[in-house]
Design brief:
By secondary structure, the chain is α/β, with parallel strands linked by helices. 40% of the residues lie in helices and 16% in strands. The protein binds alpha-D-galactopyranose. The site of alpha-D-galactopyranose has 6 residues, from loops.
Amino acid sequence: MGKDYKFWKFMGALWICSSVVLYINSCSAQIPANRDQTSRGLKDFYQKYFSIGVAVSSKNLSGDEAKLIKKQFNSITAENAMKMSSLQPREGQFYWIEADSIINFGLNNNIKIRGHNLCWHEQTPDWIFQDKDGKEVSKVVLLQRLKEHITTVVNRYKGKVYAWDVVNEAIDDNPSHYLRDSKWYKICGEDFIAKAFEFAHAADPDAKLYYNDYNTERPEKRDRIYRLLKDLKEKGIPIDGIGLQAHWSLQEPTEKQLTAAIEKYSSLGLKIQFTEVDMSIYPWEKERRERKSGESDQFTLALQRKQAAQYAMVFKVFRKFKAAITNVTFWNISDRYTWLDEYPVKGRKNYPLLFDTNLEPKKAYWEVINFKNK
Ligand code: GLA
């Protein structure tokens, strides 16, 4: 009996031990080593740094993309729905349905909303520059129309949109010019920029107001943008920050360029938001073109690694400058859809984001949440 008892006691202990070992193994099989992806998203990893946003359309607000947005992001921007041609395609006729659905998604899910944008040279309806006979309107008329547009839009989303891109891309692409020769500039001179900020501030004094542009780390463009921002500040125009679009590539910016740009803009006492982050796997091109025959668009392992390293570098710099940076927003959710699939090379696939076409995290994602990158 004593012998039997000891034997069964031993077998019982063995069973308990092996069950514990099996249980631990099954848990760790679901959690890749060093990858705490259980319930945390980018927004949680960066909670003590800045909010993490994404550009969306109303199509993204249900199904697997909506699930991903809620897990990973705590800020959203309308990809197109709040641009002038979407909101007021004809004078006085506002179309709110899509913008409202994005606002409601944000409010219902405790996600902050950036407004984009109030005054731009693209996606702007022709009617605003013309009278009823198709002739160019005067500066007074154009500024009045701009005021009406901004006042109506900012008022509608007062208290819901916490920050606006007020003026988008006013600096010329040509380094030897200062401001872009847009219709806004031709008709109003540079006044339209200051006026747009004043109209927005009058409509919602609590909203944070941003000037937004691209190639902001290239020294020649950086210095022209700096000149504009300094001028606005000196005139007492209500501007809170600069939006650096961050449509980047594996080639640029360098760490040095990114650091210099952040230091220069923030020296004006302005906040910085990275408003449209993506990392093209191709070098930057501006002109649209057809894809050449034989031009590869494969996302090779070498490209995946380079992209992960570039993302690691820029997020390391972001963390370093967390005192100046208040938001980092990605331009689209995943490689399933990116505006870069069509631009500038028609039909060429690109892979610029942190999630792949199945919405799974890419190599770049793990680098972005690897805070050991110093
Ligand atoms: C610019 C605009 C964005 C968007 C991108 C391309 O950066 O600011 O709204 O249109 O181009 O998608």
